[in-house]
Design goal:
The structure is a single chain. The protein is mainly beta. Strands 2, 4, 5, 6, 9, 10 and 11 form a seven-stranded mixed sheet that branches. The protein is elongated.
Length: about 120
Amino acid sequence: QVQLVESGGGLVQAGGSLRLSCAATGNTGSIRKIGTMGWYRQTPGKQRELVANISSGGTTNYIDSVKGRFTVSRDNAEITVSLQMNSLKPEDTAVYYCNAYVLPRVGSNWDLYWGQGTQVTVSS
């Protein structure tokens, strides 16, 4: 089984920066290919929303509210995805989740994995 493990959340003042990281662990030898990887966030009472994602070829996608402030990147060899968050605002406060589409060596169906979530709190 493959797990995604996140790190890097915490408390920061408005205008500050945080870097979130997410790494695949467990039976990574069972992976044939990693597809799109991304970051979502969720606040109480709201649906989880896409923040940014990056394709296996490096194409990135961001929601408008984080463009110019957040940068998503990945390391295909290490099977990691990161989110550099600059100029943080109180409205960025949320639990952040990483995800990844994984094609196993056995079978032809892509699996979607999620991390456990990491809290980001931005104080005003």
